[in-house]
Amino acid sequence: MHPLAAWARFLAVAAGYAIAFVAWRHVMPSSLLSPWFVVVAMICFLGLAFVAQPIVMLRMPPSLRAVREWEYTGGLYQALRAPAFGRLLRRTPLRQFNRDVYLRGRRDDAARVGAELEAAEASHLLAAVLVLPYMIYLGLRHAWAPLAWLTLAQALINVYPIMHLRLARHRLDRVARARASRRDGSG
Predict the structure, then answer these.
(1) Summary count for the chain: helices (H), strands (E)
(2) 79: alpha, beta or left, given left = phi > 0 and alpha = psi -120 to 50?
(3) How far is it, in rounded angstroms, from Cα 179 to Cα 90?
């Protein structure tokens, strides 16, 4: 995508969000501290991060970038059914949320998909971190029911996708190493 087109798309989406926010505040003057508003804002942030990818590709913080062995050898991710969540995403229309994280068969595809997987993971991590202060606020106010619902939303919208994306990055790295090994051995 041409950089000007990417900026135009990003600014159009941001303007659309701003107009929708102003209209919503005019028609439904509810509190910005509503859990519903926070969930919608979290989803809008993810959409904006996706549209911004051609402009700036998010990266995981260096300390969190490497997929650790305990994440893919079973244990916690298996118990939490992260692989099943990944299958749900891949085998249903949910796959359409981000088609850029799938291999298309070209030789240079693994590097592109790896960057896209990391950018998607980073956007979910950032969205999760941005919601944490509000979750703490709810806890301090003893608003347990909204906190429980927001925790569920946080798990489904951010935590499970992060676990799935980390497993996908591990699988992609394994495939890329195998391809490189075959290429080095046959060349």
Answers:
(1) 9, 0
(2) alpha
(3) 23
